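The following block was generated as part of the benchmark described in Methods. Ligand: alpha-D-glucopyranose.
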Amino acid sequence: MQETVNEDQEARRQVLSAVARERGAGLRPDPEFERRLDEHFPTLRSLFHSLYGARTDWLDQLTELVLQCARSWQERSPELKALDAERETTPNWFQSNRMLGGVCYVDRYANSLEGVRERIPYFKELGLTYLHLMPLFLAPEPHSDGGYAVSSYREVNPRLGTMNQLRSLAAELKDNGISLVVDFIFNHTSDEHDWARKAAAGDPEYSDYYWIFPDRTLPDAFEANVREIFPENHPGSFIQMEDGRWVWATFHTYQWDLNYANPEVFRAMAAEMLFLANQGIDILRMDAVAFIWKQLGTPCENLPQAHTLLRAFNAVCRLAAPSLLFKSEAIVHPDEVALYISPAECQLSYNPLQMALIWESLATRDASLLAQALERRHNIPEGTAWVNYVRSHDDIGWTFADEDAEELGINGFDHRRFLNSFYVNRFPGSFAHGVPFQDNPKTGDCRISGTTASLCGMEVDPAEAVERILLAHSVPFSTGGVPLLYLGDEVGQVNDYGYASEPGHEEDSRWVHRPHFPAEQYARRMDPATPEGAVYAGLKRMIEVRANTPELAGTTLVDFATNNRSVLALANFSDSAQTLPAATFGGFSAAAVDLLSEAALHLDDGVTLLPRQYLWLRVTPLQPPTK
Ligand code: GLC
Ligand code: GLC
């Protein structure tokens, strides 16, 4: 203990004197930064030490990192500093029931950043407060995994615009009450990034930025325990470089994994992160967090050091970009997903379990697994929030826990096979028009592509599909956190099979659910007689009611039986009417109102939900609320 205190003081002394020295060289005294250094340095030091303490240069590396933070803070604009201060007094701003997210590809949805800017009036019509623009940085052509192979974090893809435009878009969105979210693709760079080019040319400094080996010995040893993510693209996790060496590539061959065992890599990526923060980005979507630390003899997913790294990046933000938040993208076992969620790590997280179980419930017409997940896996720490969604730009993977399913008498392996065949329309009577993604004959694993509308049966029975789309969204819209819409889904956009002839997309079925802006469908959104209009009206209603119902905010849900708040969300996933008897509502006065339709209900009569109906009941608990 004593030793840690001394080490801490020694580190502080070295860091502070380096900061002082730099003052002569352009760094200005800054009481604000120094206050934050006092507060957060011990955390940063201990995280950094736990990652790199075995190296003789760790303290110099840490010193350099803090200097980077000081310089970046000095460059941060007064507007962003004002926002930092404002958010310090309202740290839970992102938990409001008014939060609503939307996600789109810049090119496919609006051609360019300028096009996105022109859509701001529509975003306001919809009620967005959070806009996730899919990766928009310089990337190889035509293969870039939809921009998830980044060639420079400081350059916008010239097809989409410029960094200046991104900066002014961020400011304009902010003026309109919309936070900007972009990806921080920090597990890997593209093979065209400067660092990768230098590594490929044999530069030893940059070869150390990646996991590069002279022969197959270590790659074989690592691969013994590592899962294949895109087996259709390349088997294993390594690819051979032109000079015969082997480089780690978890995803595609042109996405090279960064080596965070090297503190230079941490510092280099911290610099890129702070650069983005200073452009006015509010939230970084931390891509592929599960994979960022590797260790021989392990599956190289979800290792404890992955958390330490994220916490260290988070501590860097607290020093130099205090209002920046992280959203975790961990599409893994629900126990592991939860471990990334903390105010000190990722304040936001995708909720892949809820997403997958919405689809599971629609297929089975039985919400048991979803109900179980809401009961036992939904509540997360204070100061954090789920990003709840029906679908994303990625495939649907069936990431529920086999142990959970087992308790309900469901065999996970068989159930996934059923779900896959249901969603690719091989199961008799299926309404879904999905497409397989990464069918892996070796493991029997497969995931599903398709837009919300196509997976809900828009091509089969539009009226029922509309009901399913709305039912599906009623879950993320009533379970707190930030509901996230895939833009286009709000007008019931269907699959786009044209991807098969788009250069770079042919072999990736996820493009079937990344269609272009559906101008005609948007034009029909105000006509409730059309499927577009029906979906739009239903979603708009949920958005409005949610925005006016503070009970729908928050990170925790209260069990139905012990509900001491005053809104009950009900959803019927079955194809027949379901009645909840009066006794179910014993804890509430008889008079209730469905907030969505404004219909009055009498709970003494029980409540009957039609097939695929959902109700948000304003009820009055008989006992006064305890909280
Ligand atoms: C992510 C993205 C996915 C991409 C992968 C590699 O998880 O969501 O689209 O293929 O990371 O960057
Ligand atoms: C895997 C990864 C996830 C990635 C996805 C892309 O599920 O865990 O990070 O986004 O593949 O399909």
